[in-house]
Design a protein that fits this description.
single chain; 335 residues; alpha/beta; seven-stranded parallel beta sheet; three-stranded mixed beta sheet; 38% helix
């Protein structure tokens, strides 16, 4: 039985990846920054999969300790762990440094132990920001010299570091690698950690926004995101590729229309003028994080996922409503 190291095991996407791996017959070693969270993670994942082949280790993105030991004995590494934020930090390096250094720690240990394939959870953030395209594809890269927000910048810098490091290795030292570039990930979490991307839905429903910013995203369900990780890890033609994941692309107002259609009448549909959002971005960290993107489309076609992996995306509407229902259950919103 092949074993997979999954970093950041307590996270929204990682927990779904672990469940998907276990359901597909892999053993999993999940890394946690705090080993005391093992029971919490086990309880979340066992709602989806048999956890008899699940074990844990302790790792920190900013600490060398334990990385070689964690990778030792694993056939694959799925590096999902990455720092997240809900507002712009005062210093962008608060998020860039752990994303970059953590990626290199995971990658160097994977090269040392010659794993079959290294899977990085990157993001559309590494593809579609700082420049404009009619349709974005996997050949496009975010321009990190532009004002694009710390999170987008961190994902682009970290993914670029992976490919640069591997490309500089001697042929005999290279390992296979793929990058997964999901757009906005939606769907119920396996735990009370709803995931940063689902906070967009929460804020549309908790009164944070009386009007909706004119922001455009791709959307993909968390279950599809996990399935794509496993497919890209094992597919013979996936090596060296990036995989954008999006079932559809739409404005936030369209997402709110889906919510309202399903009874969530607090979702605003009146759109905020773009100039207003840009003005508010001068004074408000949250508005600042999206001010540069208002009015700009982020269309993508997910060609690699469809053509290489043969991927058929599930409808994101169920994921959006699944998130809303979980937010209700957690009493984070009212209907």
């Amino acid at each position: 039985m092949d074993k997979v190291l999954v970093t950041g095991a307590s996270g929204y996407i990682a927990s779904h990846c672990i469940a998907e791996l276990l359901k597909n017959g892999f053993a999993v070693r999940g890394s946690l920054r705090n080993a005391q969270r093992q029971d919490e993670v086990k309880n979340a994942i066992k709602t989806e999969a048999d956890i008899s082949q699940l074990e844990f280790c302790e790792l920190d993105l900013l600490n060398d300790t334990g990385w070689d030991e964690a990778v030792s004995g694993c056939d694959y590494v799925m590096h999902v762990a990455s720092p997240l934020l809900t507002k712009e930090p005062n210093d962008e390096n608060e998020i860039i440094k752990p994303a970059y250094e953590g990626l290199l720690r995971a990658l160097k240990s994977s090269v040392k132990h010659k794993v079959k394939r290294f899977v990085m959870t990157s993001s559309f953030s590494a593809v579609g920001y700082g420049h404009v395209k009619d349709v974005f594809n996997e050949s496009h890269w975010t321009d990190t010299t532009k004002k694009i927000g710390a999170y987008n910048k961190s994902k682009a810098i970290a993914e670029k570091a992976m490919w640069d490091y591997l490309n500089k290795l001697e042929p005999e030292n290279k390992i296979e690698a793929v990058a997964i570039n999901p757009t906005l990930v939606v769907g119920a979490s396996l735990s009370s950690d709803i995931g940063t991307s689902n906070i967009f839905i929460q804020k549309m429903l908790d009164g944070s926004y009386p009007v909706v910013p004119q922001v455009h995203f791709g959307y993909v369900t968390v279950r599809d995101t996990a399935k794509a990780h496993v497919a890209a890890m094992t597919h013979p033609d996936a090596n060296g590729k990036r995989f954008i994941l999006a079932e559809r692309c739409m404005w936030l107002a369209e997402m709110n229309g889906i919510l309202r259609k399903n009874g969530y009448q607090k979702a605003p549909i009146r759109q905020a003028p773009n100039l207003l959002m840009k003005f508010l971005g001068l004074f408000n960290d949250e508005a600042s994080a999206i001010a540069g993107f208002v009015g700009k489309t982020k269309f993508t076609n997910s060609e690699n996922a469809k053509n290489i992996l043969g991927f058929n995306f599930e409808d994101v509407e169920a994921g959006i409503i699944g998130t809303a229902k979980q937010l209700e259950e957690l009493e984070l919103i009212g209907k």
